[in-house]
Amino acid sequence: MEKIIAINRQASYEYFLLDKFEAGISLVGSEIKSIRSGNCNLKNSFIDIKNGEAFVNDMHIAEYKQGNRFNHEAKRPKKLLLHKKEILKLETKVKTKGFTIVPTKMYFLKGRVKLEIALAKGKELHDKRQSLKEKELKREVDKVMKNR
After folding, report:
1. Residue 100 belongs to a domain with what CATH number?
2. pTM of the predicted model, to two decimals?
3. One-letter-per-residue 3-state SS of 44-110
4. What is the pLDDT of residues 75-119, one digit of tens each?
């Protein structure tokens, strides 16, 4: 059973999401406590691969209120726990074809924090308009069907 913590809604608006992966995150205690209280934001965060390791950058986890001087830094880079083959696959796609890697969702799975990341390709302005039109059309159809 998974409990959703945060969703990056902007990612589906800005990018075409292709392959999705589930990754663990290496966190410290005060970060976990802050996440459990719901103080987490995925907006504007991205994944970077350095020396065969994946890191999530600009993911904001607020400082824990009851934390002391050993509290964590709010936007520090966090290591993602992925298999070596997955990291190599992501790295080759990003380097050769101009893709990017974005986090889409953070959730608890069996008491552990997991991050769903997606291989993504940027949308053009006309693509964004088209997706907004489709979303609005779907909303109107659902509204009409509900009133019947």
Report:
1. 2.40.280.10
2. 0.79
3. CCEEEEECCEEEEECCEECCCCCCCCCCCCCCCCEEEECCHHHHHHHHHHHHHHCCEEEEEEEEEEC
4. 888 899 999 999 999 999 998 877 899 999 999 999 899 999 999
